[in-house]
């Protein structure tokens, strides 16, 4: 017979461990965490720099230290941790098909499932850089694993394409290991990383950041020998006559992260084309009853502390679903969250008022850089609430709290917009 669990969590990174701990705290007794790597912790294991935990633990930790805290907490729950195990399929009736070298192919079922598979990096093939195909081209995360876990140096003269946070952090890391980072190249007119990483990882080490530029050719036969960089216009097309040649032996790609949702799609769960993650309600439940999602599998986060908070919410809801089953609140009136002007996406995509208690959190990203500005919530043409901001950028996730009375008073969907505040 298929073994039965109260809550099954797919993914043993920071999201999965936080969700499992929260499920235990909220009454789930039989919990399993399934992780495909050799140890829990996910991407945190290779993030040996400090800066984690400032929000959640109120102290500065390295990535492995943050993961270690949750691994210790998970151990106290009595949850079963299955490592080196690949999940092959999740069904809408919450069956999980998986395989590992010890037990072979097996199937379990659960009262509730939490999807916490994280995300993966966009590769060279996804962005189509012209040129030859020499060695020396890495995604920033792969280079980080080589240097920080495997102990291999990836190169001595590097150019970084993209200004995502992992790329910025690797610019500093390679410099500290003795390599020369010639430049960080960003196709957009703004950085896609956190402002603090621009300062601490580039400016503090004298590494130039070229905005509105991109690599238009990689040169080299066996190993990267040089890259051609050009300025781009407002349509992101290379401008002739702006070519620069950087002689280098390594190219790191920090050109975006993609939520890891192959299992989600195969299960028939609704995907939001804006986030590339599952559509979720206020408690992180997906379009499939009893299946929840959290962390970077839903949308890419800036800080692991925010992943933890979101995952604890998913774990709590999963435990309640496993214990009580569906409730009237889960089927209550739903308010869709609509992307208004200058908003790239929102999470959650819909809020069920009977399940939102006194308020609801909404996370979102803007499409461009703002100075003094306002975030507006409207019910049709009616302005319900406005939030002031001094600065917003696409590389920094924003968060607002919508009071319960606003949710209840809205006649239909809620539209969230961002605009320059002319009064400030």
Relevant terms:
424 residues, alpha/beta, FAD/NAD(P)-binding domain, Immunoglobulin-like, 3 domains, 7-stranded mixed beta sheet, 9 helices, 22% helix, 34% strand
Describe this structure in words.
By secondary structure, this protein is an alpha/beta fold. The protein folds into 3 domains: 191 residues, FAD/NAD(P)-binding domain (3-Layer(bba) Sandwich), CATH 3.50.50.60; 133 residues, FAD/NAD(P)-binding domain, CATH 3.50.50; 93 residues, Immunoglobulin-like. It is 22% helix and 34% strand. It contains 9 helices and 29 strands. Strands 1, 2, 5, 6, 7, 8 and 21 form a 7-stranded mixed beta sheet that branches. It has a 5-stranded parallel beta sheet with strand order 10-17-11-12-13. A 5-stranded mixed beta sheet has the order 24-22-29-26-27, with no helix packed on it. Helix 5 links the parallel strand 11 and strand 12. Helix 1 runs parallel beside helix 2. The chain starts with a strand and ends with a strand.
| CATH topology tier name of the largest domain | FAD/NAD(P)-binding domain
Mean pLDDT: 94
The number of distinct structural domains comes to 3
Overall shape: it is: globular
- Which regions are unreliable across 5 or more consecutive residues at pLDDT < 50? none
User: Approximately how much beta-strand content do the residues carry?
Assistant: 25-35%
* CATH H-level superfamily of the largest domain: FAD/NAD(P)-binding domain
The overall strand count is 29
Radius of gyration: 22 Å
SSE class: alpha/beta
Largest sheet: 7 strands, mixed
Figure out the total of helices: 9
Q: Helix content range of the residues, please?
A: 10-25%
Q: Cα distance, first to last residue?
A: 65 Å
Secondary-structure arrangement, i.e. CATH architecture of the largest domain = 3-Layer(bba) Sandwich
Kindly provide the name of the CATH class of the largest domain: Alpha Beta
């Amino acid at each position: 017979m298929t073994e039965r669990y109260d809550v099954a969590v797919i993914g043993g990174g920071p999201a999965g461990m936080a969700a499992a701990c929260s499920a235990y705290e909220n009454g789930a007794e039989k919990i399993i965490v399934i992780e495909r790597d050799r140890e829990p912790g996910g991407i945190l294991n290779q993030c040996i720099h400090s800066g984690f935990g400032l929000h959640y633990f109120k102290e500065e930790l390295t990535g492995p230290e943050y993961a270690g805290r949750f691994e210790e907490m998970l151990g106290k729950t009595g949850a079963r941790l299955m490592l080196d195990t690949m999940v092959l399929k999740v069904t809408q009736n919450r069956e999980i098909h998986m395989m590992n070298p010890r037990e072979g192919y097996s199937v379990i079922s659960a009262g509730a499932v939490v999807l916490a598979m994280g995300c993966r990096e966009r590769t060279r093939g996804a962005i189509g850089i012209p040129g030859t195909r020499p060695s020396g081209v890495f995604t920033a995360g792969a280079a980080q694993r080589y240097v920080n876990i495997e102990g291999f140096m990836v190169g001595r003269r590097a150019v970084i394409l993209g200004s995502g946070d992992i790329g910025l952090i690797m610019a500093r890391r390679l410099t500290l290991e003795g390599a020369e980072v010639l430049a960080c190249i960003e196709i957009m007119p703004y950085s896609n990383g956190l402002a603090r990483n621009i300062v601490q990882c580039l400016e503090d080490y004298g590494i130039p950041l070229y905005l509105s530029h991109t690599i238009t050719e990689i040169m080299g036969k066996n190993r990267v020998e040089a890259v051609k960089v050009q300025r781009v216009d407002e349509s992101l097309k290379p401008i002739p006559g702006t070519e620069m040649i950087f002689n280098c032996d390594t190219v790191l790609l920090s050109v975006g992260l993609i939520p890891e949702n192959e299992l989600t799609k195969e299960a028939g769960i609704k995907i939001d084309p804006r986030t590339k993650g599952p559509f979720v309600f206020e408690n992180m439940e997906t379009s499939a009853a009893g299946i929840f999602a959290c962390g970077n599998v839903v949308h890419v986060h800036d800080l692991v502390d925010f992943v933890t908070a979101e995952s604890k919410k998913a774990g709590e809801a999963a435990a309640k679903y496993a214990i009580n089953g569906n409730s009237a609140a889960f089927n209550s009136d739903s308010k869709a969250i609509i992307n208004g002007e200058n908003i790239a996406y929102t999470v959650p995509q819909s809020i069920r008022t009977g399940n939102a208690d006194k308020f609801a959190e909404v996370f979102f990203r803007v499409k461009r850089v703002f100075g003094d500005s306002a975030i507006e919530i409207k019910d049709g043409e009616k302005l319900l609430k406005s939030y002031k901001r001094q600065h917003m950028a696409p590389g920094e996730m924003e968060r607002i709290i919508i009071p319960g009375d606003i949710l209840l008073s809205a006649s239909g969907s809620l539209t969230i917009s961002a605009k320059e505040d002319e009064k400030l």
